């Protein structure tokens, strides 16, 4: 019995010390892992945030460039017919959109869906207005019809998407 007590007298403190060191070492490793994760997260945040903001900037630029007022001024040339104007407007909207397709990687699905919807609604508006104008009349007639339709709607097809994208981009500035 004395021998057992003598053995326990030496092994028990060693066992307690071993368990304490093991627990402390394990906590240290977990803490180090958390620090590395945090550092990676901060590094990713520093890299992706500017990319996201740039994507939102480009989306705003796209929406501004395809707004009816802007695109009509850019596309209209002297001597164009309403049909030519319609084709040129649609072609320009699609080209602008395709040029910015990669931005969807950095934007939320909802924001990108709003941009796609704005593009589709604008093309629909152009085609609807073109149906009400004789194809061989001057492009001015189509331009006027589009702008009048926008005034009747109260806002152009891109404004809702523009507002959404701006609000969402603002969340990355805080």
What does this structure look like?
The protein has 6 helices and no strands. Helix 3 runs antiparallel to helix 4 (109-131) and helix 4 (109-131) runs antiparallel to helix 6 (159-170). Helix content is 80%, strand content 0%. The mean pLDDT is 90. It has helices at residues 2-65, 68-75, 82-99, 109-131, 139-153, 159-170. It has a domain at 51-170. The protein is an all-alpha fold.
Short description:
The chain has helices spanning 2-65, 68-75, 82-99, 109-131, 139-153, 159-170.
Draw up the topology in text:
Elements: H1 2-65, H2 68-75, H3 82-99, H4 109-131, H5 139-153, H6 159-170
Poorly predicted regions are: none
Overall mean pLDDT stands at 90
Dominant shape: rod-shaped
Task: Note the total helix count.
Answer: 6
Q: Give the N-to-C terminal Cα separation.
A: 71 Å
Strand/helix succession? HHHHHH
Based on DSSP secondary structure assignment, what is the total number of beta strands?
Answer: 0
What is the helix fraction of residues, given as a range? over 70%
Instruction: Specify Rg, calculated over alpha carbons.
Output: 32 Å
List its salient traits:
80% helix
């Amino acid at each position: 019995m004395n021998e057992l007590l003598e053995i326990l007298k030496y092994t028990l403190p060693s066992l307690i010390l071993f368990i304490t060191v093991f627990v402390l070492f394990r906590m240290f490793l977990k803490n180090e892992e958390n620090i590395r994760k945090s550092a990676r997260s901060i590094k990713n945040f520093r890299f992706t945030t500017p990319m996201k903001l740039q994507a939102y900037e480009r989306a705003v630029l796209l929406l501004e460039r395809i707004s009816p007022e802007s695109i009509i001024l850019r596309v209209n040339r002297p001597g164009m017919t309403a049909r030519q104007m319609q084709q040129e407007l649609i072609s320009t909207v699609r080209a602008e959109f395709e040029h910015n397709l990669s931005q969807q990687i950095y934007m939320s699905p909802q924001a990108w869906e709003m941009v796609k919807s704005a593009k589709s609604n604008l093309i629909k508006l152009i085609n609807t207005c073109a149906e009400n104008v004789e194809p061989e009349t001057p492009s001015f007639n189509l331009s006027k019809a589009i702008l009048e339709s926008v005034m009747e709607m109260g806002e152009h097809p891109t404004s809702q998407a523009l507002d959404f994208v701006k609000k969402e981009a603002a969340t990355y500035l805080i």
